[in-house]
Design a protein that fits this description.
Number of strands: 2
Radius of gyration: 41 Å
Number of domains: 1
Strand content: under 5%
Number of helices: 2
Strand order of the largest sheet: 1-2
Largest sheet: 2 strands, antiparallel
Order of helices and strands: HHEE
Distance between the termini: 40 Å
Helix content: over 70%
Length: about 180
């Protein structure tokens, strides 16, 4: 009986610790996924910025060609329009970079939270294992069932009375 209780306690303790390790592994895997997603977002934003630069270059070239084809010189109003378009283009590029950086920061924060959650799961599993150990050991050792719980009365026959230092037995109790 005691062996089964010890085995059950050991399994409970081991299970609690294993659960904590698995939770940490899952949290670490999730954190790595967040970090990978952040790197992919950075690459995607760099590609998007390159595409936007190319589009802006094409628009500038088209605007210059139209101005030249119309016979209007580049100086004056057309130059101001080109400069304004270039300024807006730079703002568009910075907006792409900024939004990507926000997403990357968010993913980095989620990765950190996931790792923290994994560490907390390990700590909780240690407490759960301790609780299972204490609970299991308390079921094994029951002081009310201990063979030494009865004091001097256990050495005296059941139908006896102790007076002073001598034992008086009830009539018919086998007084010899």
């Amino acid at each position: 009986m005691c062996t089964l209780a010890l085995l059950g306690t050991a399994l409970s303790v081991g299970g609690a610790l294993a659960e904590g390790r698995q939770s940490k592994q899952m949290a670490d895997a999730q954190a790595r996924a967040y970090e990978q997603q952040a790197r992919a977002d950075a690459q995607s934003a760099a590609f998007e910025q390159g595409q936007e630069r190319h589009r802006q270059d094409l628009l500038k070239a088209q605007a210059r060609a139209q101005a030249g084809a119309s016979g209007v010189g580049i100086a004056g109003s057309p130059a101001e329009v080109l400069a304004a378009n270039a300024g807006q283009g730079q703002l568009d590029l910075k907006a792409i970079q900024y939004s990507s950086q926000l997403r990357q920061n968010n993913l980095g924060t989620q990765a950190a939270i996931s790792r923290f959650s994994g560490r907390q799961a390990v700590a909780a599993s240690i407490f759960n294992a301790g609780n299972a150990l204490a609970g299991g050991l308390s079921k094994i050792y029951d002081p009310t069932k201990s063979p030494t719980s009865g004091t001097a009365t256990s050495a005296v026959p059941a139908r006896s009375v102790i007076l002073g230092g001598s034992t008086l037995r009830a009539p018919g109790a086998g007084n010899t």
